[in-house]
């Protein structure tokens, strides 16, 4: 049996994904969740986990240093990596939205958008027939309209609480997001049996009912 | 823009150091021998071609092509693949002398990298084109030659996935009716987005049987029997044809004795837009990218004015080397150190050793600043220094 390497995003998705793998019958050690290690070996299952920044998961999988990965659809849209998207895990539900201060319109000459997702934001506005200027930020995107940096932001919304707390309103919903199981194209062929088995086991859990 | 340092190279451009050069040369000559053994003749084509001709005929994405202007202001490209240039030569010249035509190449191609490093923008491809033969025998011959070339190069753990463009095309048309809707489904397969494919299928106004037929496509894979599974998805003679071809192909590859390397995958589609029939990709253990691919391209030659069918493959030497990870094939070089008064003695010894087929460096001892460090790199050192007649090996 060939060993599988799985790139996992640190943070919220990680916990939900671990619950899912356990339900699918994978025996993961109890100290798994609060480990500070970046690589965790689970020899009894012939699995190896790499803990990565969510944005980096598709990169590891595309280059084949990880066979599989768990990545949000938001990251997949932004990164456009050459990987197979096999399964919608139906965890970490949220969506990408355009938000801004209430009752404002975008600057007509050069509307400015702050976001962590420059590729998604610019293609979305292009589809709306609008040319915008993107300002890339790495966090606390909600600040941008408040302090007058941009007219709008494009960001992930899960409950909308952060927007409300900062006095912002949602203008448009771009796309719904969930986490996906992705796989390297070569691993998908070479280690097909093991990967398909994992897909089937996870798929069973997903069909059995809601996880989140 | 910041000033360049003298050591910098354009993005994606790499040097080939001596040990890598040796490996490339060795593999190239093994594969060349094999391809020549199957009657394929090697040729070279120019590095630069017109964008309007070869550039547009090539299936490489526009943004990946290096472009420049000639003195007349015409747009040129650094060839992004070899199939289009060979189609040009074959259509305009070589096919008149021989048809079917068997050609082979080993050449550097250029593809610009935009996002990040980690991938070379110039790399060597080896491949063949079998032009003028539309039979399944020809498809099988190229795949068999690909397998035997990889085996000759020493590769063991690899799989070739084979699909058929017409099968996917016909299945989609049968179920969704229009080319436009079929294109949408095909795009999900190109993008390898199975989740999107499934969701899109669910959203279509189709009977549940038709939905199952579409979804079934994703799970059919494996050996000969999988063609039978595929048969249950499709109807009519136009659907039969590609599957009959695949079945025949599998039979011929069995005759070659290569069935263990084959994996039938009817959902395989290629990004290369010129493929029309059988398509295939090569996957090797330890390399995260497909190391080669190929297929039938029956319309490409029309663009260059010849109405003939063709098939071929190309694989990347750099990825193949990565998959082989061979120990650096070391050629043992011997060193002769001489002092100027005994130079002629050194020259005749060097000549003698070279005639035996050894590789020999003949070096004036006063030309080295650190003799101990230099000689430490050689196993065999001949000292021809000092008074005549007192030469000897180093202890």
UniProtKB/TrEMBL annotation, chain A:
Pathway where this protein functions = Amino-acid biosynthesis; L-histidine biosynthesis; L-histidine from 5-phospho-alpha-D-ribose 1-diphosphate: step 1/9
Q: Where are the transmembrane segments?
A: none
Quote the EC number: 2.4.2.17
Enzymatic class: transferase
PANTHER family recorded: ATP PHOSPHORIBOSYLTRANSFERASE, ATP PHOSPHORIBOSYLTRANSFERASE ATP-PRTASE
Q: Domain annotation text?
A: Lacks the C-terminal regulatory region which is replaced by HisZ.
**What is the protein named?**
ATP phosphoribosyltransferase
From TrEMBL, chain B:
Question: What is noted besides the main data?
Answer: This function is generally fulfilled by the C-terminal part of HisG, which is missing in some bacteria such as this one.
Relate the protein's function as given in its record. Required for the first step of histidine biosynthesis. May allow the feedback regulation of ATP phosphoribosyltransferase activity by histidine.
State which pathway it belongs to. Answer: Amino-acid biosynthesis; L-histidine biosynthesis; L-histidine from 5-phospho-alpha-D-ribose 1-diphosphate: step 1/9
Q: Which residues form the Aminoacyl-transfer RNA synthetases class-II family profile domain?
A: 12-332
- Similarity comment: Belongs to the class-II aminoacyl-tRNA synthetase family. HisZ subfamily.
Assembly and partners are described as: Heteromultimer composed of HisG and HisZ subunits.
Q: Name one GO molecular function term.
A: histidine-tRNA ligase activity
Locations listed in the record: Cytoplasm
Its Gene Ontology biological processes?
histidyl-tRNA aminoacylation; L-histidine biosynthetic process
Origin organism is Jeotgalibacillus proteolyticus
GO cellular component annotations of the record: cytoplasm
Specify whether Transmembrane is a keyword of the entry.
no
What the entry lists under PROSITE patterns is as follows: AA_TRNA_LIGASE_II
- The main location class comes to cytoplasm
The protein's UniProt keywords, in alphabetical order, are: Amino-acid biosynthesis, Cytoplasm, Glycosyltransferase, Histidine biosynthesis, Transferase
Identify the Gene3D superfamilies for this entry. Answer: 3.40.50.12590, Bira Bifunctional Protein, Domain 2
**Where along the chain is L-histidine bound?**
81-83, 111, 125, 129, 274-275
Instruction: Supply the HAMAP family for this chain.
Output: HisZ
Name the gene. hisZ
Pfam families to which the protein is assigned, alphabetical: HisZ-like (PF21996), tRNA-synt_His (PF13393)
What is the protein name for this chain? Answer: ATP phosphoribosyltransferase regulatory subunit
């Amino acid at each position: 049996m060939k060993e599988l390497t799985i790139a996992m995003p640190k943070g919220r998705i990680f916990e939900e994904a671990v619950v899912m793998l356990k339900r699918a019958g994978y025996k993961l050690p109890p100290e798994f969740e609060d480990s500070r290690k970046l690589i965790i070996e689970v020899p009894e299952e012939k699995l190896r986990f790499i803990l990565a920044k969510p944005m980096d998961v598709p990169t590891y999988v595309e280059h084949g240093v990880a066979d599989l990965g768990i990545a949000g659809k938001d990251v997949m849209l932004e990164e456009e990596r050459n990987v197979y998207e096999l399964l919608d895990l139906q965890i970490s539900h949220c969506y990408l939205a355009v938000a801004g201060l209430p009752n404002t319109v975008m600057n007509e000459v050069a509307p400015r958008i702050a976001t962590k997702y420059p590729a998604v934001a610019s293609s979305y506005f292009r589809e709306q027939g609008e040319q915008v200027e993107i300002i890339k930020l790495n966090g606390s995107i909600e600040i941008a309209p408040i302090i007058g940096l941009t007219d709008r932001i494009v960001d992930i919304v899960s409950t909308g609480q952060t927007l409300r707390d900062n006095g912002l309103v949602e203008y448009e919903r771009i796309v719904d997001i969930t986490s996906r199981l992705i796989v390297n194209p070569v691993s998908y062929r070479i280690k097909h049996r093991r990967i398909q088995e994992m897909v089937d086991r996870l798929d069973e859990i997903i069909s059995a009912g809601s996880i989140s | 823009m910041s000033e360049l340092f003298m050591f910098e190279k354009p993005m994606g451009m790499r040097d080939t150091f001596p040990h890598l050069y040796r490996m490339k040369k060795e593999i190239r000559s093994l594969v060349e021998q094999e391809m020549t053994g199957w009657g394929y003749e090697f040729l070279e084509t120019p590095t630069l071609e017109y964008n309007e001709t070869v550039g547009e005929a090539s299936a490489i994405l526009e943004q990946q092509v290096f472009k420049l202007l000639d003195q007349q202001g015409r747009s040129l490209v650094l060839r992004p693949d070899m199939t289009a240039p060979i189609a040009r030569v074959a259509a305009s010249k070589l096919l008149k002398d021989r048809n079917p035509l068997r050609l082979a190449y080993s050449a550097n191609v250029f593809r610009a990298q935009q996002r990040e490093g980690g991938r070379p923008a110039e790399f060597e491809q080896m491949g063949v084109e079998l032009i003028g033969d539309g039979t399944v025998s020809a498809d099988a011959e190229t795949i068999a030659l690909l397998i035997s070339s990889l085996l000759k190069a020493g590769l063991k753990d690899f799989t070739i996935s084979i699909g058929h463009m017409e099968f996917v095309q016909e299945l989609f048309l049968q179920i969704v009716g229009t080319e436009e809707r079929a294109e949408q489904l095909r795009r999900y397969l190109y993008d390898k987005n199975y989740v999107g494919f499934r969701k899109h299928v669910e959203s279509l106004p189709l009977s549940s049987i038709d939905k199952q037929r579409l979804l079934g496509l994703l799970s059919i894979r494996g050996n000969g029997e999988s063609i039978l599974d595929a048969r249950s998805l499709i109807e009519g003679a136009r659907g039969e044809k590609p599957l009959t071809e695949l079945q025949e192909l599998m039979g011929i590859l069995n005759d070659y004795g290569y069935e263990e390397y084959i994996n039938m995958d009817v959902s395989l589609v290629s990004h290369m837009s010129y493929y029309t029939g059988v398509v295939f990709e090569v996957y090797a253990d330890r390399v995260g990218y497909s190391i080669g691919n190929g297929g039938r391209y029956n319309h490409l030659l029309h663009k260059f004015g010849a109405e003939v069918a063709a098939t071929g493959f190309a694989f990347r030497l750099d990825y193949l080397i990565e998959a082989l990870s061979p120990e650096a094939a070391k050629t043992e070089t011997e060193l002769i150190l001489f002092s100027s008064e005994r130079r002629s003695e050194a020259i005749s010894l060097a000549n003698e050793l070279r005639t035996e087929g050894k590789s020999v460096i003949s070096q004036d001892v006063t030309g080295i600043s650190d003799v101990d460090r230099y000689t430490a790199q050689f196993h065999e050192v001949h000292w021809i220094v000092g008074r005549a007649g007192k030469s000897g090996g180093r202890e």
